[in-house]
Amino acid sequence: MAAACLTLAGWSPPLYAVAEVAVPVRLCLLALPGAAAPDLRAARSHPVALAQCGTFFRFHPHIRPVASHDTAGAAREVAELGDPSVAAIAGPAAAARYALALLAEGIQDRPDNHTRFVAIARTPPPPLPPGRPARTLLAFTAPRLPLAAALAPFATCHIPARPLLALPTGLFLLQLDHPAEHPPLAIALAQLGERVRDLRVIGSYENGRD
C-alpha cells in the first residue's frame, strides 16, 4: 500500500514514515570514582529508564529511584553534585563523558531492550513488491471509541495491530504488520474510517523485524 501523508501543524510539505531502526539500549549504574554500590542511596535517570530496571531496584532496595529529565542529564547531575551516595542510570558513553565510574553494566530487565526510531522523509518510499513483509503506521482520533473497538477491523481481517499511543483525548497511533499490497488491509482501513475521525496513514515501509 502506498504511504499517505501525515499533516501536522507547521509541517509543510507533508512528511512520511519510510523506515525504522532499532538501537540497543544498555543501561549502566554510574557513580563518582571511589563510590561503592552498598553505599548508594539514590539513582537518578529518566522515568522510562528507571522503569526498565525494576529487577535491579528490587535486589537493591537501599537505592531509591529518582526521576530526571534524561539519562545523560542524570549522569551530568551526579558529576556536578559530587555526592558519592547518588548514582545515575545511563548508557556507558555517559561514564566517559562525565568522568564517572561504571559500577554495573546491563542492569535493564530485558537483554533485548532497544529504542525504535522512525525515519521521516518528504517523499514516500516506492511501493514494496506484493507479499513482502510491511509495516504501516496510522493515526486517528476517536474520543468515544474504546481501543478494542478500534482494533476490531484488523482482528477480523487477521492483521496484527499494536497500539503505540492511546491518549485520553482520543488520539490513537497504531502499528500494523502485514504483507505488502494486502487486500484485507484496505477493507480494515475502510471499516475503521467509518467510525473514527482524521484517519491518516503515516507511512508504509518494509518490516525488517518483529
Descriptive overview:
The protein is α+β, with helices and mostly antiparallel strands. Helix content is 23%, strand content 34%. It has six helices and eleven strands. The protein starts with 15 loop residues before the first strand and ends with a strand. Mean pLDDT is 88; it is low at 1-12.
Quick overview:
The chain has 210 residues and is α+β, with helices and mostly antiparallel strands. 23% of the residues lie in helices and 34% in strands.
Main attributes?
five-stranded mixed beta sheet; Alpha-Beta Plaits; single chain; alpha+beta; 23% helix; four-stranded antiparallel beta sheet; 210 residues; D-Maltodextrin-Binding Protein, domain 2; 2 domains; 11 strands; 34% strand
Layout of SSEs?
Blueprint: E1 16-24, E2 28-31, E3 42-45, H1 47-51, H2 54-59, E4 64-67, H3 71-81, E5 86-90, H4 92-97, E6 101-104, E7 114-121, E8 133-141, H5 147-156, E9 161-166, E10 171-179, H6 183-193, E11 197-206
Parallel strand pairs: 3-4, 3-5
Antiparallel strand pairs: 1-7, 2-5, 2-6, 8-10, 8-11, 9-10
Helix pairs in contact: 5-6
The helix tally amounts to 6
CATH superfamily of the largest domain: ACT domain
Q: What is the distance, rounded to the nearest whole angstrom, between the alpha carbons of the first and last residues?
A: 19 Å
Can you write the helix and strand succession as a string?
EEEHHEHEHEEEHEEHE
What global shape is seen? Answer: elongated
User: What strand line-up does the widest sheet have?
Assistant: 4-3-5-2-6
Q: What CATH architecture of the largest domain would you give?
A: 2-Layer Sandwich
CATH topology of the largest domain: Alpha-Beta Plaits
How many strands appear in the DSSP assignment? 11
Would you state the CATH class of the largest domain?
A: Alpha Beta
Major sheet attributes: 5 strands, mixed
| Helix share bin | 10-25%
The whole-angstrom Rg is 22 Å
**How does the helix and strand content classify structurally?**
alpha+beta
* Arithmetic mean of pLDDT: 88
User: Could you list the spans in which at least 5 consecutive residues all have pLDDT below 50?
Assistant: 1-12
Overall tally of domains: 2
Strand content: 25-35%
